Amino acid sequence: MIDAPDLPARIRARDRAALEAVVRTYLGQIVRAARGAGFTGPQADEVAQETFTTFLETAPRFEGRSHVRTWLFGILYRKIAEARRALGRERMTDDIDAVMEDRFDDRGRWRQPPRPADDLVYAREVREGLEACLEEAPLPQRMAFVLREVEGLATPEICKILDVTSTNLGVMFYRVRNRLRTCLEARGITRKA
Amino acid sequence: MLTCRDVTRAIASGALDEMGWAGRLGVRLHLSWCRHCRRYRARIDALGRTARRVFRAGDARDRLDRLERSIVDTMSAGSDRTDG
């Protein structure tokens, strides 16, 4: 059903079985991405519900040029951006570039090399630490990270969802990964292997 | 000749996957002698593994089932209304 070639046509026609199959297939991922974006349990459920409501409303316009999952994640991303703007949670400045620049000398060699390879402690404090550190990141970076690392989406699909070029996405990955590492290290949530 | 700055950019931005063979070879050579950049890559990899583990844990199936039923019910009501 979900991979059938006539799925876009059935979605446009609001075929009930097709719409239900979309919900059953992608609800788990949508809720998880909402949580990754900083929503707690009930809020994540609510934003997921709103995502599928908008999906139903916009179904007649679904042309099938992109995958239905891409379409859904795009709706989710716009919902989250709206909610965060309403809460005033968006930070405007980005200082991670300066932090990283400081780690290299003018010949591009490490001035402050990483400490010996470590792995993060897997415990509740890591979850809390990761969520707190993600909270410091601008939403597009945060979504890029969650869609790649947690959902395993490929670059072209993430670019469509976030409406950015692959060069922009590369900069976002660079910033968010360095930001998270720097933040987790500052909180002391690492251990030596 | 790639610098540590170049190599960390390639690793963290994900550009490594899209580089041609010459670029990938350059990064691999650099990593073969630079332990700092090897550590850096290990950290970036560990970060991804941790995020997967943290966010994929604890998806309560019964809660998700209830939410799914609620959405499907709303959708059915909505499609009945618009179609009829």
Give a description of the structure.
The complex is a heterodimer of chains A (193) and B (84). Chain A has 193 residues and is mainly alpha-helical. Chain A folds into two domains: 7-87, Rna Polymerase Sigma Factor, Chain: A (Orthogonal Bundle), CATH 1.10.1740.10; 96-192, Winged helix-like DNA-binding domain superfamily/Winged helix DNA-binding domain (Arc Repressor Mutant, subunit A, Orthogonal Bundle), CATH 1.10.10. In chain A, 64% of the residues lie in helices and 2% in strands. In chain A, helix 2 (16-36) packs across helix 4, helix 3 (41-58) crosses helix 4 (68-87) and helix 6 (124-135) packs across helix 9. Chain A is elongated and about 60 Å long. In chain B, 81% of the residues lie in helices and 0% in strands. In chain B, helix 1 packs parallel to helix 3 (35-56). Chain B is elongated. The mean pLDDT of chain B is 84. The chains are: A mainly alpha (193), B mainly alpha (84). The interface between A and B is large, with 55 and 46 residues.
Share of residues in strands of chain A: under 5%
Shape of chain A: elongated
Q: What is the class of the largest domain in chain A in the CATH system?
A: Mainly Alpha
Biggest interface: chains and residue counts?
Answer: A-B, 55 and 46 residues
The CATH architecture classification of the largest domain in chain A is Orthogonal Bundle
What's the number of extended β-strand segments of chain A? 2
Q: Roughly how many Å apart are the termini of chain B? A: 68 Å
Helicity level of chain B, as a percent range? over 70%
Number of strands of chain B: 0
User: What name does CATH use for the topology of the largest domain in chain A?
Assistant: Arc Repressor Mutant, subunit A
| Structural domains of chain B: how many | 1
Quick one: overall form of chain B?
A: elongated
With helices defined by DSSP (H or I, 4 residues minimum), what is the helix count of chain B? 4
Percent strand of chain B equals: under 5%
Low-confidence spans of chain A: pLDDT under 50, at least 5 residues? none
User: Pairing-aware structural class of the strands and helices of chain A?
Assistant: mainly alpha
* Mean pLDDT reading of chain A: 87
